[in-house]
Amino acid sequence: MKTDFDAVIVGAGFAGMYMLYRLRKLGLTVRVIEKADDVGGTWYWNRYPGARCDIESIQYSYSFSDELQQEWNWSERYATQSEILSYANHVVEKLSLRSDMQFGSTVETTVFDETAYHWNIGIRSGEIREFLTCRFCIMATGCLSTPNEPVVPGLEQFAGSVYHTADWPDTSVDFRNQRVAVLGTGSSGIQTAVALAAVAEHLTVFQRTPNYVVPDANHAFESEQLARVKADYPAIRAQAKLCRNGVAQEIVALSALEVSQTERNRRYQERWDKGGLTFIGAFSDLILDAAANKTVADFVREKIRTIVQDPATAKLLSPTSTFGCKRLCVSSSYYSIFNRENVALVDTSAGVDEISERGLIVAGQEYPADSIVLATGFDAMTGTLNRIRIVGKQGEALKNRWNEGPTGYLGLMISGFPNLFTITGPGSPSVLSNVLMSIEYHVNWISDCLKFMSDRKFQVIEPRTQAEDEWADEVASIVDNTLYRTCNSWYLGVNVPGKPKKFMPYPGVPSYESRCSSIAKNNYVGFDFS
Ligand code: FAD
Ligand code: NAP
User: Fold this and answer.
1) Ligand 1 pocket check for 33: Cβ under 6 Å
2) Domains, the chain
3) Can you give the pTM of this predicted structure?
């Protein structure tokens, strides 16, 4: 039966944009459905002050078109949200993608029709509801696209303004002469706090758990510097493919415990000065071995004591958890804002009692505020998919299937949900990698798979449950060899009350890509075609 489109892509972030480009090249008819009023995904929604990437822009950018990477000029080592959004718009214009995109439209349901073997997509655009049919449904809905709204009693009675970093207004907010409260100290919270410390009359940072923050050493690009990078692009991209997190860096095959403390600290200092997430690559075993990990945690705690003048504040800012177990934060200025007169840190490890009309109450003390910024993160990886009613074969809802945590094969497909793909889905490196690189890998893999199907006149692809079970075991055994299970991170889902506890991403870009490519080469072993 003829469908309205060959494929529907949900989401117009970097994943949806590139997927559309590739599917057009295959000659498919495609419609992209996007909730927001424009492209950019993460970079459309997260407009909070200080928002920028934490993987260098020269790497956090598409690699599929050399023309694109040569013509675009990043102004800083880590571009701001607005520059990344301009880049997304530039790509969309250059590749003329907009004509196949529908904005301001939310996909509410996707139901598989087992008789016609197609997907029915239910879409709401304001008051208007429409249905589309398609053979392939591709979820480009993002891993970090559903804000985690904290359950704090009294929030609705607060008389001032409340903002969530992940749903920031697109008009500028003036925080001058304001007392601002920032709740949350993950990457969003620390970036917001650094930006607001410089403008707000007073800033109070409410911290439940301290995070490790390494310097970014951000700088503007000189044109000669950028020219050098552009000339090196092939080597940089190739090196990234060999690195665990998909970020090009020197690969160190040395344990932190193999060298003297002096040599260890010299190496840490070198990376500290250089700045960036590659700090964790100083030794090969920092996220694998607890004793090695302690050496780097001690180094950073010592840095905090050196930077922060008040010893009690320094102590409160010092994490006791495994270094790198939660995503590292990156900022050269965060710790030093606590030396300012207008900045205070409040410990909420025992909870926030309540939010009153005037501010936050913690341990019986009220902290007055004119605005509250919720930097409380995301219902990551599964939250956005679970908010769509996805119904597969025999009327089974994906949300029910994922009752005890997500399952699937390669993070790309789920048994019982034929022809439905998830870009950067659970069970793939996604958030443990340079996400743009993982997006490109998945989009290329899906495009090649659809070409394989079309060449053989296959209509339907679905993974086997046995392949899924084996994949789950494989991912679990890789995670078990790391220290990732030793803290309460959003990778495990524990940041959202009631969410099942399961480690969701796959650590290790090179091994993941090698597995997926070999599966494709072997006629997509683990998948059934019909
Ligand atoms: P998204 O950009 O999240 O796009 C998904 C889109 O789907 C959204 O526009 C959303 O509106 C839409 N959507 C969702 N559900 C529906 C629905 N039901 N109907 C219609 N539309 C829907 N990663 C890095 O590797 N490096 C970084 O430096 C980095 N910095 C980050 C900074 C911030 C503040 C955040 C929040 C994340 C960051 N990330 C970073 C991760 C980032 O999410 C990815 O890098 C990347 O942008 C994800 O692209 P995406 O297209 O997969 O998803
Ligand atoms: P996050 O890392 O989950 O941090 C959320 C913060 O809010 C944590 O400090 C958390 O405390 C706190 N929190 C959550 N619920 C709370 C509650 N009910 N009461 C009090 N505190 C609460 O979220 P995020 O900062 O938005 O970052 C998420 C991910 O997005 C990052 O890890 C990164 O991958 C990406 N990101 C990247 C950048 C960048 O630099 N490029 C910027 C922003 C985001 P606990 O730690 O105790 O749970």
Assistant:
1) yes
2) 5-146+379-524 (3.50.50.60), 155-374 (no CATH)
3) 0.98
